[in-house]
Structures are given as C-alpha cells and as structure tokens.
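Take a minute with the sequence and fold tokens given here and flag any structure token that looks odd. Thanks in advance.
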Amino acid sequence: MNQHLPQRDAAAYAGAAPVGSPAADEAVTHDNNAVSSSKIWQVITASSVGTVIEWYDFYIFGSLAAIIGPVLFGATGKLEDSLLGALAVFGAGFVVRPFGALFFGRIGDMIGRKYTFLVTLLIMGGATFVTGLVPGYDKIGIAAPLIVVVLRLLQGLALGGEYGGAATYVAEHAPDKKRGYFTSFIQITATGGLILSISVIVITRKILGEEAFKEWGWRVPFLLSGLLVIASYYIRRKLHESPLFAKAKAAGTTSTNPLRDSFVNPVNRRLVLIALFGVTMGQGVIFYTSQFQAYSFMNNTLKIDLVDSSTILVVAMLLATPLFVYFGSLSDRIGRKRIIMTGMICGALFTIPLFYGIKAFAGPLTEITPATVDAAGKAVPAVMKALTPNIPAMIALTFILVLFVTMVYGPIAAYLVELFPTKVRYTSLSVPYHIGNGVFGGFVPLVATWIGVWAATQPEGTFAKDHSSLIGLAYPVLVAFVCFVIGVIYMRDVRNVRIMD
C-alpha cells in the first residue's frame, strides 16, 4: 500500500562493483519484490548471527555488573558504590552509541553496508575478548576501570554501527509488503543476545562453582566471544553488497555527505527528530526496563538466586520471542504506528504495577550468613536471599513486560527503514535509534538504581523511603509517556513503501 508514504528514490549504498561490470548490471536490474525466499533467509541468517553475537558481547558486562564491580573498583568499598560504578562503566558504552551511528552510518552510506558491519563485528569482538584479560583493581589500581571504560567505548561505537547496517541490509532485500515480517527477525537478535549471555553465564557458573566464578570464571564468557566472532565473521564474509547500494553506486546517486543530507536538510532532520522523540526514546526505555532492569532488580534488590532469576527472564523472553515476528508481520497489514503506540502506552501504565507484582511473588528475605567483622576489623554485611520465590508467577509477569517490548520493537526496523530515503538511510535511522536506546534506554539501570539508592537514605515514613526499591522506575515510565504523546501527534503510519523506486 504505497499510499502511506511518497515512493522513495532508488538511491542506495556503496561498496559496489564498477559501472558496467556484471555485478553492477545485476544490481541495476534488481527488484527486492522478486528476491527468492532462499536468498532472503540467507541474508537474514548471516545478518542475525553477527548481530546476536554483538548484543551478547555488549550485554555480558551488564549481566555481571555485581561481580565485576568489586574487581574494577576494589573489594574494600561499599557494595552499592561498586555496583553503581560498574553500571556507570556499562553506561559509558551507551553514551557513544550515537557517535558510532554517525561514524559508521557515514561509512555505510558512502562505502557500503557489508564492509561496515564486518568492521563493527571485529571491533566489538576484540574489545570483549580483551575485557576478559584485564587485571583487577587490586593488581593495577585505577588503570583497571580506565582500561575497561575504553573497551566499553569501543563496544558502544561498534554497536552504534551494527544495528543500522543489519536492519538496512535485510530491509533492502525484503519484499515491500513483507518488510515488517522479515526485518522482525533482526529485532529478535537483541533479546537473543541477552538470552545467550545469561545462558553462558549460568552454565559457566554452574560448571566452575560460585567461588571460582567470582574469582576468575567471570572472564570465560568474555573470552568465549573470540570464538563466536571468528565464526560470525566467516559467515558474513560470504555476503554480497546490498543490491540497492550497488544500484545507487552504479547510477552515481549515493550521498557524498550523509551527515549533511541527514541533519542539515530540514525535511530529513524533522523525520530524525520525530523518530527519536516520538518512537525510539520510548521504545528504548521500555526495552531496557522490561528486560535488563527486571533482571538487575531480581538479582540485586530482591536477592533471588542467579539461576532462578535467569530462569525467570530467559523463559519469559523465549515465550515472547515469536511475538516479535507476529507484530512485525501484523504491521505489514495494519500499519506500524498503532502497534508501537499501543505497546508504548502499556509500558507507561503497567510497568510499575508489574514490578510490584514481581516483588510480591519474590517472597521474604532469609539471612544466609549473619553480619560479622573480618580480620581487618571491617564490617561484613549479612548475606540475604529470597529462598521461596513463586517462579511461575514471576515468569508470567515478566512475560507481560517483554510483551510490551515485542510490540514497540518488532515493527520498528521496518518503520525506520521506510521513513528515510535510500541515500541516507543507514545514517538517518541509526542516529535516532541509538540515542533512544543508547542514551534514554541504556541508562535505565544506572538512573533507576541511583534514584533507589538516594530514596533509601531518606527519612523513615517518607514516600521515597517507603518505595525506594521501585521509585527509580519513574524515569522510564515518564520518558515512555512523553514519547507516546509526541508519537501520537507526529508519527506517520508508514508501511509497504516501494524503496526501489
């Protein structure tokens, strides 16, 4: 249904064969509506495998924040301070994701999609592998967190270029009337990376034992990334450049300055701002609240055993994963806007009540080890655990949280791809996506935890003190609600745009 947006120009992205070559001639005659199913699935598989690995690399640090914190900041400080420090280092990777989107988006719009997401894959994998080798604070002092910050910045830059490349590459192969369906498989990769990271951590922890894992075993998931990246790189090398990009290269219609064309051009700049403040900002906070913050909340606040909390989140995400594809496909038929906006308002209204339900079903805390004093005279706090969580009920509530994620996230790649013209698509969709997810969404764990720590210091009987464990959720809820209002007013319902024209 092309009436939902003006038809796009055929300009695509570079790295293609010279004009007159067989590859260029094939690109000029390429029609994404005539691509075979086997070719599309080859493209989806190669793109998705690499993207899952990059999300895995990015998430394992956050999943291990409570363990890595004392390693990076020393084991003699307060647990809350080391956790906040680790979450701040984790957040550093999110801050630079928009800069990665600018840098690699420009390369992708000028040189090519394939080349760009091969480079981002190697940077991400290399930084993750080296993180597993960095000595702790007790051995090299302040250099430990500084080195890891640099590595996290490299990871953030790489991830900033990955998503836009993968989404654009798949979308430019997909038929116009099934773009939401096919691009939804890229949307699964972020959740898939989180599931993979949690699974590897739990298995490693079980094999090595608690003490060995805390001492050195936490490094294994980082080092494993090296093998995963090598395999993914081999798969991606076999891909050809995007035919749309090759077509534009052959026609000489690629952008010579994607940054200018994306952000100086007033029409395109307006679309970028709508995409950010009316879509991705709210999608980002819902994504990270419903998955990552929920996991952190169960581990660090509710004191649920790692295996139990991992089981709750992984089962909920696995049950919800097919819904990414369902809502992506549904958006091809009824439009992207109503699905995304429904998920966003549900997230704004029901996130806090669902977290209260998760807290209620976690059960009471039991003292495992009493408070004591170590040989140096330093107070060691008691170890508390929730020993009787209602796991089925917590899975059900977490599933509802992830359901909201599938609604806002499943159709969003198709929406962003169709929103922008081909010659600046990589740059234009990457920047609002990574500001919304990297800045607004990525800082949910840090901001929510910081607000909770502040609230816990308030006088007894105050609202902040009484609700200190959940008051931090006010941040993502407020952002989601503001984004919903802006999106309802300004977001255009686009679908089935013929991007070859």
